[in-house]
Each structure stands twice: as structure tokens, then as C-alpha cells.
Amino acid sequence: MRFSVDAWDPSYGTSVAGDDLADSSARVEVNLEVRAAAWRPMAVPAARGRSVAVPAAVLFVDGVRRVEARAWIHDLAPSGGRATAAAPAICASYACGVVCCCGQGAHLLGAHVRRGLFTAASHAVDLTTGGGRYRVRTAKDGPDGPTLALQQEMLELEVRIAARARGTHELVQTVDDDDHPLADVLPGEFGEGFGGQDGHAGQASQASQHTADRSAGQADDLLVVDGPLRGRTRLPRMLGFVKTHHTQYLPAAQHAVVGTLDRAERTPIFLLNNRRDASWDRFTWYLRLPSRPGAPWAGVARVECRADLPLDEAVALADLSQAVLPRFASQEFKDGRAPQNLYPIAGLERALRRRLGDAQLLYRSLRRAAAG
What we know:
Nuclease, RNaseH-like_sf, eleven-stranded mixed β-sheet
């Protein structure tokens, strides 16, 4: 009997969800970069005679969230009366940030921490507690409305902080919901080989170097967001990086090509088209990161870019992903989701979670506010 053990820590599940991937309802176009019948693993660009200009900086964007408490916003009742209905709500903390990996090392460009009260109740007001202020964020009606509103708020915050970081490549201090600066020291959090100087002094020096590089015309960069693009397509040179696979998008013949990929090889690009929502469309491809031998899909990630790009630009981004992303792949002894959990993303997630605050302390402060 031949078998393999999934490299991911069992607490994270597996990189391929379930024994069988669910079929996709999206229309898939595979006759793009090559004809469907000619699908095969695409070697690294150099082996195909293609040159790739590696960007001076790679910006990694990610966000984390934590629901501190689930709540109910009681309907308004006559004075002295008792409410007979209530709207669901969640009190959540969330943070988004950007890590830049460049010649000066890996360093934090921006991190923002916010707290929100997500509910459809029109009469809800900001909630002030001993652990901070939870600002009201409007959600749609329904039991899933608050959770969906939280996800949308995170996506929009990621786009804003990424645009700001890309626009200057300068250090942006961590801020909380009220824009008060927080301590921001991240020594050695982004993986071996990517640690720059420690503390604010080193980061300030890196920011100055970025400014000098921009004035010298060397400000090219690549933006990588953790997860699908999902509405985060407004910025140029942006890739979505998907670690876990839930859906089978490709026809059987092309799907089989994924399992034959060698390290740093990718599939030809294909187009996913949602008939009901054009904003969901994207070019995408599968890429195998460096990993030990294992199951056919071991070390495979799915990468995507905007669907409104010319085909040659999409192909150029796919080639660029082969040249850039494998060098950030994590190793099993350092990360439970190796190699797909890239070192800069893993370090950023740890840094952001620390900034969310103590969960038990925040929960108790919410209980006290509710009792008062």
C-alpha cells in the first residue's frame, strides 16, 4: 500500500477540502494560453525562453478577525416596557496589514486594528467599553448579515491600506479604531532570510530607502493578497493567493495536469466566469510551491488576477508568480500549513492577532457594558 501524510497540521484540516472537490457552477474557458488538448505543466519562464523582470518589492496583504461576542439589539419599546423582539449582532475585532519584502528585508508598512458592532438594527449606536469602542457597522437582515458585513468591511480595509502603502512605500504606524498610534516592533516575524533591521529605527531607514528607490524609478512592485481577490481588483499588479481548494473548476483532462506539476511549475491560465456576477470573474492558474513529495496536490496553490486584463498581461503575471512566490514558501518545521502559508503572510497574521488584544478581557468588558 502506498500512502502519504498531508503536510498541514491536522488542526487546519487539509489543503484540499474533502475527498472530492465540489463542482463549480462558473463557466470555465481553458483555450487561452494554450489549446485545451495541449495542456501540460508550464516550466519556469527561463526554461521556456521567457524573461521575467522581478519587482523591486513584493507587498503581502492580509487581515484577521475575531468575534468577541454575539449579541442581540433589542427593539425599541415604550417607556418602562419590555422589548418583544431583537436583531442579531456581533461585536468583533479585526485588523489588516501590509508587509513589504524588498532588498532591505521584510518590514511592516501598515497595520490597522478596528472594532465594530455589526447589526441590521437601525437604532444601534456605538458601544463604548473598558476594552475600547465598537463602532456601529450596518449589516443586512438575516442571521448571516453581521458576519457578511464584517467580511466586507475587512476586504475594504485591506484595499485602502494596500493602496496607501503602495502609494508611498513608507512606514505606516499601527493605529487602532480611534487612530491612536500603537507600538510597532516586528523583529524576525516574517521568516528566515526576510528579517530586516529591528524596531522603528530600522523601519524608518527602510522607508527612506523606498523613497529613494521611487525617485530613481525603481518603484515597481507586486501586490499579493491572501485569499481570493473577491472585489479587491481595483489596484494594478495584484494577485490573489488561495491556499485551500474546495472546488474543482477544470474539466477532467485539464484537472489531471495539476497533479503532474513539479516545483515552481504552473498550469496554463484559464478564465472563470460567473454568469450572474461579472465582478467575480478572474484569470487563474495552479502553481506548485517547493515541498516534499506527497499527494498529487501537495504544495499546490491557486493564483488569480483580474479578468479585464489583456491576455498577454495575465500570462506575464502568471510567469511572474512562478519567479516570485516559490521563494516565500514555508517549511513544515516552521509552519503547520507549509508550504502554502507563505512566510510573510504567516508573520503578518501573527503580528495582527497580537494587536487584537486579549479575548477574555474584551469579552468581560462587553458583558459589563451590557449589564450597565
